[in-house]
Amino acid sequence: MTIASGLEGIQCKDCGFRVIELSISCPSCGSDHIEPVLLKETGTIYTFTIVHVGFGHMAERAPYVLAIIKTDDDLKLTTILEDLSDFDSVAIGKKVRYKRTDEKIGPIFQLV
Ligand SMILES: [Zn+2]
What we know:
Blueprint: E1 8-12, E2 18-19, E3 34-38, E4 42-51, E5 64-71, E6 76-82, E7 95-102, E8 106-111
Bound molecules: zinc ion.
The site of zinc ion has 8 residues, from loops.
């Protein structure tokens, strides 16, 4: 995965399907006529959980917030939230913004 300057995804030239995860073919129709696109960097928390015991490269990060967010492009993405003052500030429906892309984790978001 390359480190993008923004929230990068792919769009299928055949069916128009868009997804945040980078892929070599369209996850919807299987076409390899895909192109990279920059996506809206804002969204809302769809659901989340607090992970107290991480594993692998996430172990030292725990506790952390694992969230599914719905971006303003109407795409869902599993991500983690950074820069939280406390976990009570996290709630379903709260606005988030893309922060950066981590080599191992992928896109990381923060509260707006
Ligand atoms: Zn497609």
